[in-house]
Design a protein that fits this description.
With 404 residues, this protein is mostly helical. It is built from 17 helices and no strands. It has one domain (3-399): Sodium:dicarboxylate symporter (Proton glutamate symport protein, Orthogonal Bundle), CATH 1.10.3860.
Amino acid sequence: MKLHWQILLGILIGVLVGAVAGDLPTVIDAAGFIGDLFLKLLRMVVVPLVLTSIVSGIARLGAGQDAGRLFGATILVYIGTSFAAIVTGLVVVNIVQPGSGAEQLLQPLPEGFEPHVLTLRRLFLEMVPSNPFGAAAEGQMLPLIVFSVLFGLAVARVGAAGDAVRDLFEGGFAAMLELTEWILRLAPVGIAGLIARIVATTGFDAFRPLGWYVACVVLALVLHAVVTLPLLLRVLARRRPTAYARAVSPALLTAFSTASSSATLPLTMQRVESAAGVPNKVAGFSLPLGATINMDGTALYECVAAIFIAQVYGLDLTIAQQVLVVLTALLASIGAAGIPMAGLVMMSVILNAVGLPLEGIGLILAVDRILDMMRTTVNVWSDTVAAAVVAQWINPAVERGELT
C-alpha cells in the first residue's frame, strides 16, 4: 500500500478510535503518546535537515548569478502566493460578513484603543541570529535559515578550500534523508494517535458554535488551494495540478494531521524531490525557507479572523484599516513558526494593528484546532507549488546541468 493510502487509513482509524474510546482516558492517553512520539521524532530531524540541506545546496549552486536567481525567484513566489491568499480571505469575509449580528458575543470596544503599525525593523533584527547554535537549539528556523544561506555562500566563495566542508554537509544531508525515511515509516501509526486524541477531545461538534466563521475560513482556504495555486502550477510551472497533488499527497495528509509545517518538512522534501521530480538544489533551499516564511493558509486565516472579530465588535473597518490588516497579516505570517497554533499566537499582532482588544482571540479558540489543521495543509501545498514554479523559472540552469 502506498504511503498516502497508509496515512489516510491511519486518519480513519484515528477518527474511529477517538469516537469510540473517547470516554476511555487510558486508550486516548496511549494514542496521544504515540502521536507525540511521532511528532518528536519528526522535530528531531528538522534542524539538522534544514541546516545540511541549505548549506550543501547553496554551496553546490555557487555564489554567482544562479544563487541570486534562486533566492530572488523563491522570495518573489512566496510573497505573491501569500498576498493572493490574504486578498482571497479579505474578499470572502467581506462578502459573507460572518460576524454581523453577533455583537452580543463580545463586550463593547473599550475607550482609548489606538491602532499600531507593525514595523519591519523588529522582523529584520530577529532574522539575524546572535548565536546560530542557540537558534538551532531553540528551533528558531528563520535565523537558522539566514545563517545557513550565508554560510553556504561563504563555502561556495572559498573555492577548493571549501570542498571538504561542502562534502561534509552533503554527506550529512544524505544521512538525514535516510534517517527521515526510517521515521516516515511510522507516519500512519503516529497520525492515527494524533487524530484519535483530537476527536476524543473536541468531538464532532467543534464547528457548531461559530459555523459561519468556520465556513468563511474554509471557503477562502479551498478557493486558494483549488483555484489560485493550481492555476499557478499550470501556468508558471507547466505541471498538471492533479498529478502533482497526488505526488505530494502524503505530505498534505501529514500536514493536516499534525498541524505543523515544520514537522511535515522532512516528508515534504522527500515527496517533492523523489515523487514530483523537483531538483534537490531547488527543493532543498525553497522548502525549508517556505516552512518558515511561506504561510498562505495562516496569513489568510489571520486576515479573516481579524475582520470577523471586528465585525463582532460592531466595527466597520475602513479600506485603509483593511489594507493595514493585509500588510500586517503578510508580515505576521512570515514570523509565524511552523508549529501547531502558531497562527493563533500571531493573531495578537493583527488585532493590535487595527486597535482591537486581544480578548477577541477567545472567541475563535473553540474551532482553532480544526482550522489550524486545514490552514497548515494549505501552507504545505503552497510550499510544494512554489518549489515547482521556482524550478521552472530557473530551468535554463537545469538544462546546463548546474541544478540537476
